[in-house]
Design a protein that fits this description.
Blueprint lengths: L3 E2 L6 H10 L5 E5 L4 H12 L3 E6 L11 H7 L4 E4 L5 H9 L6 E4 L8 H21 L4 E5 L10 H14 L4 E7 L10 H5 L4 E4 L12 H10 L9 E5 L8 H12 L5 E4 L1 H15 L6 H15 L4 E3 L4 E3 L11 H11 L18
Parallel strand pairs: 2-3, 2-5, 3-4, 5-6, 6-7, 7-9, 8-10
Antiparallel strand pairs: 1-9, 11-12
Length: about 350
């Protein structure tokens, strides 16, 4: 498996000793446990026999619709504790409760990718979880990051990257997981295609390639980080099985599975550029439009950039260098949602810009 070796300063003897002690069930604290990936990670850890405490908001899910009782049901087998990740006091009092944890898993992500929310959650709240890991005596911190931080043009990418650096400098063993696009981020056009509408491409549709990964395959990969020394003190880009798929290839797959003749509509990249320039100009006068401009930048980024390992020397994305894991394929996912609908795959707060790191 290809990984990025960033340090190794903990030393092989320390890692081997830690792994020996981790042979049995671990006590794990999960932050962001009610999110799309965090929920699956929590369930996976529970299924493996670990003692899991899930720290969550009292009102979670899309639009805050999930009640505390619903969260407990969704995270069955974990002890669910409620509090505010933006408040270190809440984390200590409600999350830690003076107890020891072997490891911390952080699956936090800003809800909408806005500038202030990104720095509040992807950096500052994540920093609070790192402080909590130290306070709890944890010696391993697993972070769900994003592969797109390789080219940090957006606020949430810059915030995530800055926290990654803080984690690497913390002295704790770390596993920084950078997944490619999730299945649900590629589901926005399923219903329109099913209803007879065209598939919308930005540009020629040959860019924006990815190796999409399911939430369950990613959760298993993250859980393995706790027991696999090869995944520690590493940055771990990861995608799902199979070849990389461009935006056009994703559309062609949808048409094939829906039994329809391919019908594409192209939107010029220049349209995004014009909207971004206009909103950025207006945001100088009306600060409330700052996030609107950022959302437009996010839309452009994901319409044009690939979610693959980026070769900085050659200045291109490299599908062959992007590791794969799991068995779930986008073909099987599309077939299922075309048949059964998108329940459980709603984009929610990210719907406007199809944010793949939600």
């Amino acid at each position: 498996m290809a990984v990025t070796d960033t340090d190794g300063s903990a030393g092989s003897q320390l890692i081997d000793a830690a792994m020996d002690s981790a042979a049995g069930p671990l006590r794990v604290l999960v932050f962001g446990a009610t999110g799309y990936i965090g929920r699956c990670v929590t369930r996976e850890l529970v299924a493996r026999g670990h003692g899991v405490v899930a720290f969550a908001r009292e009102r979670s899910g899309i639009g805050g619709r999930s009640t505390p009782e619903q969260s407990r049901v969704q995270l069955g087998g974990a002890e669910v504790r409620f509090g505010d990740v933006s408040d270190p006091g809440s984390i200590r009092a409600e999350g830690l409760r003076g107890e020891h944890f072997d490891a911390v898993v952080c699956c936090l992500a800003s809800r909408n990718g806005g500038v202030q929310d990104s720095w509040k959650i992807d950096y500052q709240a994540s920093l609070h979880t790192l402080e909590a890991a130290r306070a709890a005596g944890a010696d391993h911190f697993v972070l769900l990051s994003a592969i797109c931080v390789q080219k940090p043009d957006l606020a949430f990418q810059q915030a995530k990257l800055q926290f990654e650096q803080a984690l690497m400098n913390s002295g704790l063993r770390y596993s920084i997981v950078r997944p490619t696009a999730f299945f649900k981020s590629l589901a926005a056009q399923v219903e329109p295609v099913k209803k007879g509408f065209p598939y919308v491409l930005v540009g020629d549709g040959e860019g924006a390639s990815c190796k999409p990964i399911s939430e369950t395959d990613l959760a298993a990969f993250i859980a393995d980080c706790l027991i696999d020394s090869d995944r520690q003190n590493r940055i771990l880009p990861i995608g799902g099985p199979g070849e990389a798929l461009s935006a056009r290839a994703q559309g062609e797959l949808l048409f094939e599975l829906s039994g329809r003749k391919p019908w594409f509509v192209r939107v010029p990249v220049a349209l995004f550029d014009g909207v971004i320039a206009l909103l950025a100009c207006l945001a100088g006068v009306f600060p409330q439009l700052l996030d609107a401009a950022e959302f437009a930048r996010i839309g452009r980024y994901y319409a044009c950039e690939s979610m693959l390992v980026y070769d900085a020397e050659r200045q291109c994305y490299d599908a062959a260098a992007t590791p794969s894991t799991g068995q779930d394929t986008l073909r099987a996912f599309y077939a299922r949602v075309l048949r059964d609908g998108l329940a459980g795959q709603e984009l929610g707060d990210q719907a406007l810009f199809r944010h793949p790191d939600a």
